[in-house]
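User: I'm new to structure prediction. If I give you an amino acid sequence, what do you actually give back? Let's try with this one:
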Amino acid sequence: MEESKVYTIPEVAEMLRIDPTTVSRLIHRGKINAYKIGKLYRIPKIELDRFLYDTNTNVLKAKKEKIKKRVSLEGIFNDSGITDKDLDEATKIWTSRELP
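Assistant: Good question. You get back a string of structure tokens that encode the predicted 3D arrangement of the chain. For your 100 residues, that looks like this:
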């Protein structure tokens, strides 16, 4: 029964701690799939999960992006005399840390 759970825009906004207008914009931009019933939108739980999680790894998409950004800083340091060993160590630290 949990799979058929649907949410309203205010409920999704509260869960994500964002403004309901932002949820509406995400729907209109096609980032979150929703169904319009009369004048109101309903967002199925499965669609909200698809928006939030990478389906291959089940990791939050935002968290995955932070990891990519931190590791991509490696290119900035290549010309400053930092060794490959230093970069490898920094990459291990960045990717193993629990991100906020």
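You can read the tokens as a compact description of the fold. Here is one thing that stands out. The two ends are 32 Å apart (CA to CA).
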